[in-house]
Structure formats: C-alpha cells, structure tokens
C-alpha cells in the first residue's frame, strides 16, 4: 500500500508540477558528475566502466539511504520522499508540452521548430523539412516514453518486488532502483556516443537496462492507439535502427499511425507511409500521453498487488 501511494504521489506531482527548474533538479546535479568523466583519458574503457558502475550505484545508495532514514522517522515521510524520487526520475508532461510546441511551429515558424527540436532529439535539424521535424518529434516522444517514464516506473516496481522477496525494506530499494535506472540513462544520453570511448560501457549498460521498458512501452503505445497489431508490424523495420531498443516504441507509433518516421541517412520506419502532417503528429503526442497514464496505473496496480 505504501509503495502504491508513492506511485500516486509521483503521478500527482507530474500532473501538478511537470518539471522542476534545471538548477534545482537532482538529475542535473548528477549530470555534472558525469560531465567530469566526459574528457580524454589514457584508458577510456577502464574509466568508463568504473564510472558506469560507481556513479549510478552511488546515486541509488544515497536515495535508498534517505528513504530508509525517513521511514524510521515516519512511514508517510518515506512515502512522500519515495514519491518525490520517482517524480524526479520520470518525465512526461514536459516532454508532451515541448513536442506539441515543436509540431505547432512546423506550420507557423519552421526555423523555430528546428531550434525547438534540439530539446527533443539530438540531431542536426538545420536542413530538415517540416515533415521531417514532425517525424523527429513523434520519434522522440515515443522513444522517451520508455526512457523518461516506463524505465523508472518498472525499476521501482521490480526493485520493490525483489527487495520484498529477499527480506529487505521494499520502499527504499524501489526508490533506489528508480534512481539507478535514471542515472544509467543519464550517463548514456551524455557520453554514450561512438565518438566517446569512455561512454561505451554506459551505453552497453543502458542497452541492457532498457530492453524491457522499450518493449513494454511499445505495447502500451499500441494499446493507447487502439492498434494491438502495430508492435508485430514494427518488427520488420527495426534492423536499420542502431539502438536495439528505441526502434520498438518508434516503430509501433509508425505502424499505429500509418506514417513514415525517418532519421535521414540512418533509418526509415514504415517506408510505404507518408511523413506525418501536423494533426497526425499531435495525435501521436496525445497517444503517448495516454500510454504514460497507463504506465502509472500499471505501476500502481503492480506494487499494490505484490505488497
């Protein structure tokens, strides 16, 4: 019951607040630690491996310890703190709002849309057409459903379940697991590029961690779109996507909406379709929002059933 309440707290904060200012966001503070690793090293893989192991574990230990201490003082304080941690390790409202703004700008101010896309997708948008910008926005919102929400919710539930099974306090472990996953994902987003050897261990760890959330996100998105077969359709397009995970929710969105999603020179999902128009792209964002609500409900029901 306490873990389910923590999920409710996180969902309530997401609805009411959306996203704290960057200067006050613990994920941004963690990013500064990752930034210290992001430089040239004589043995980049060794340094990267140590960083990929120690930094997320450190974040998880701090969070779990804080929730455990709060539980000794007052159980509801632990619930509030665990809910706050889960809120800080997830993001939905801000993602949807940013995507909607970019899509709207593709019709009124394409240069502004290209600039705004930088907050969603790490690609050069200077030469993208309006349809390609909308495609990138749809891709990013679909992918970030997994990265920014489902991964931390799944870690919270699974961490609590495992803790209860071995006799550990579920709530601190659940909160620590959510923080660990967010730390891994943050490291990957900052240094997990082929050009940065120090980030290779973090990238490989993120690939493993995101395997389940990406596929769960695809299923949730298919349900939200009312297109249960879209996950199966997406499988035939995924070979060209460099990531072993991100193609699943993106491909599902392409199939469910019957649009082509394309990163020029890298991959094409649903090549027989057309790039999304503004109305279709906005509908995609709405469906991601519905899938996000389903993820919160599923997480709350999951912890309630187990505990």
Automatic annotation (TrEMBL):
Protein name per the record: Probable cobalamin biosynthesis protein CobD
Membrane association type: Multi-pass membrane protein
Family, as annotated: Belongs to the CobD/CbiB family.
A GO molecular function held by the record: threonine-phosphate decarboxylase activity
Role description: Converts cobyric acid to cobinamide by the addition of aminopropanol on the F carboxylic group.
Any one annotated GO CC term: plasma membrane
Pfam families documented for this protein: CobD_Cbib
GO biological process: cobalamin biosynthetic process
InterPro entries, per database record: Cobalamin_biosynth_CobD/CbiB
Key words, A-Z: Cell membrane, Cobalamin biosynthesis, Membrane, Transmembrane, Transmembrane helix
Protein's pathway: Cofactor biosynthesis; adenosylcobalamin biosynthesis
Transmembrane segments: 45-69, 76-96, 153-181, 288-306
NCBIfam families documented for this protein: cobal_cbiB (TIGR00380)
Primary location: membrane
Superkingdom of origin organism: Archaea
Cellular localization per UniProt: Cell membrane
